[in-house]
Write a structure and sequence with these properties.
The protein is of the alpha/beta class. The protein has nine helices and twelve strands.
């Protein structure tokens, strides 16, 4: 059974992400944790010390959050009647990042699925701050679902990698589950830097090939930026899911540690899975 965390702010984008989760895992036994966090709109010292103007505000917000979660659960159970799926609702006075991190640990979560939350341009995903922070800190894979994504079964998966890390089965478990269920082809894309693969890279490549069990197709791309390589690949072949491992030495990590960057320059409108390295 998969244990999947679904953060929601009750927006259309977050509902689309939840809908994607229910569709991708429709034939798999899952417990879905519907999570909403709240903080007072004016989070000041007088709230903590219980000033007269703030008394009861937390209780009202908690009750509102709980009610909205229960309504969301009822809607999902009605619209997506599925004996494989059960729901748990959870509301918390906390930051989203703090509660997601705690819940992953306490509930042994396998996967987080959430909306990108940020604005969307014609060709690019813009990640909201919360999404970036969750991707950086989560100890399990995270799938970010772009707004207005029309569901497609993840049959063609693009997996850019530099073969610089060891690939462990437990870290790829969610990806392997999806690939097995949908008989997916995993397109492993390596962008050449002008140098031959090192012995370590060759070893890691072989490990990855064995883990993916003949589901993979390897693409060796001439020297290019990873962003351009991903974008050009999609012009030639339809991709339903983009997957990356958050290697601290790769493009993905450098991108996310830039505090002013919220935009992913991939010209992509499909879900994006990020797998933690550790």
């Amino acid at each position: 059974m998969k244990r999947i965390l679904l953060p929601t702010d009750f927006s259309d984008n977050s509902f689309e992400a939840i809908r994607y989760a229910l569709q991708v895992f429709k034939e798999i036994e899952c417990t879905f944790f519907l999570l909403h966090t709240y903080t007072p709109p004016v989070y000041q010292t007088e709230y903590l010390i219980g000033s007269s103007g703030q008394i009861g505000l937390g209780d009202v917000m908690r009750e509102t959050s709980q009610t909205q979660l229960e309504q969301l659960q009822s809607r999902l159970e009605k619209e997506y009647k599925n004996p494989n799926h059960t729901f748990v609702v959870h509301t918390a006075f906390n930051t989203l990042l703090g509660e997601v991190t705690d819940t992953i640990e306490k509930e042994n979560i396998d996967l987080v699925i959430m909306g990108t939350k940020g604005a969307t341009g014609a060709t690019e995903i813009l990640f909201g701050t919360n999404t970036v922070h969750v991707i950086k800190k989560a100890k399990c894979p995270v799938i970010a679902v772009p707004p207005k994504f029309e569901y497609e079964a993840p049959k063609e998966i693009l997996f850019p990698t530099d073969f610089e890390i060891e690939y462990k089965k437990e870290k790829l478990e969610v990806l392997l589950t999806i690939a097995e269920k949908y008989q997916s082809r995993i397109n492993i894309m390596h962008v050449r830097t002008g140098l031959d693969l090192t012995n370590t890279q060759k070893k890691n490549k072989k490990e990855l090939e064995e883990l993916l069990d003949n589901r993979s197709l390897f693409h060796d791309i001439p020297d290019n930026t990873i962003t351009d390589a991903v974008n050009e690949f999609q012009l030639k072949q339809r991709v339903n899911l983009l997957v990356m491992v958050q290697n601290k030495h790769t493009f993905l990590e450098r991108l996310f540690i830039e505090p002013v960057i919220k935009k992913i320059g991939f010209h992509i409108t499909v879900p994006f899975m990020v797998i933690p390295q550790v």
